[in-house]
Amino acid sequence: MPSPIPVTRLLPKDMCPCLDIGTCSSPLTKHSFGTTLQVPVQRLHGKVASRLWSTVIHWKELRALVPVGSGGFGSVYKAEYLGETVALKRVKKCTKNTLASRQSFWAELNAAHLRHTNIVRVIAATTCVPPDFGDEGSIGTILMEFVGSRNLQQIISESAEPLGEDRWLRYASDIARGLRFLHSHRVVHLDVKPANVLLSSADVCKIADFGCSVKLDHGCEVSSISPRLSHVGGTYTHRAPELLKGEALSPQADIFSFGITLWQLITREQPYTGDRQHVLYAVVAHSLRPSVQDHPVFLSEQGRLCRPVLSRCWSAEGRCRPSAEELLPLLEQLRAQLGL
Q1: What does the alpha-carbon distance between residue 18 and residue 312 come to, in Å, rounded to a whole number?
Q2: How confident is the model at residue 14 (pLDDT cuts 50, 70, 90)?
Q3: Residue 328 contacts by C-beta under 8 Å, 6 or more apart in sequence?
Q4: What is the pLDDT of residues 118-128, one digit of tens each?
């Protein structure tokens, strides 16, 4: 079945479909086993050097699938591929909303052709799986670099590790650099939150999980109520008010989510308590935001210095928020003010 999102919005310009009777992949051309988009095999980390992601998975080279996590649209496994450790994500078919799960799979590939230190790299993706690897409830499979098994949500909520100003500022800067790169390529993530930021063994943050992402056309915003964007959801605690109101989305929606994430890094708390519908209504109607005025962390001199950055990031008006490009100087200024 064709992707609900036009394939041309997902593939690099220099990637062209061609007929292949081998490994099955993206549903663009037909053959006896399914469909494929063939690109040259590229070894990982020197074995298969990679500027682009591959649309062919060499299943015989895949070993030792070990579950590491699961979410609303899929499960993630640690595996070996071509001698390297990788993460394998199976996007499952949601029986309640098949269209949304299909859109989630294709949205995962919006940043597949991009390479950046602070973004999880896609290695390969396919919609067809050989019988030996079959999963009837799966829409597609994505191979990604294996970053690690920890995310920022675990650091914030489950870890006893210190999360001092120098550390959370470094994490915030990593996320801002990743967003700046994504936005420069017109990709909006739309689900920025601590659980979607992975930590590498070198303690570097990498933005993951692009299942809600959108690729914008040049100079255009996209209506969040467009039928082809029915998968747009994100996490309600981090979602920008304009998206809750069904208005046009832009990169500034990610900046709002960044602001909520930054508050969590500073406080190590959840942004809201109470009923979901009440929170959604209050964010839009009453500009509800995580506590700053009465929160003990922000009563100190250091905490007061953080307030202006947070206030700008989660402004009710997207045009009043800083761009991802402007975030990094703001964070560097904050670092200087904190004496770090």
Answers
A1: 48
A2: very low
A3: 173, 176, 177, 180
A4: 999 999 999 88
Q: What is the pTM of this model?
A: 0.82
Query: CB-based contacts of 54: which residues, under 8 Å, 6+ apart?
Result: 39, 41, 42, 123, 124, 125
pLDDT at 48: 43
Quote the percentage of the chain above a pLDDT of 70. 76
Residue 220 has pLDDT above 90, yes or no: no
Q: How many residues does the chain have?
A: 340
The dihedral formed by the CA atoms of 86, 198, 11 and 132, expressed in degrees to the nearest 10:
30
For residues 305 and 296, is the Cβ–Cβ distance under 8 A?
Answer: no
Structural domains of the chain, with CATH: 7-145 (3.30.200.20), 150-337 (1.10.510.10)
Q: Which residue numbers are catalytic?
A: 191
Give the integer Cα–Cα distance in Å for 340 and 180. 23
38 pLDDT higher than 50? no
Q: Where are the beta strands (DSSP E) in the chain?
A: 62-70, 74-81, 84-92, 122-126, 138-145, 150-151, 187-188, 197-199, 205-207, 214-215, 222-223, 248-249
Q: Residue 136 to residues 28, 139, 208: CA-CA distances in angstroms? A: 21, 8, 25
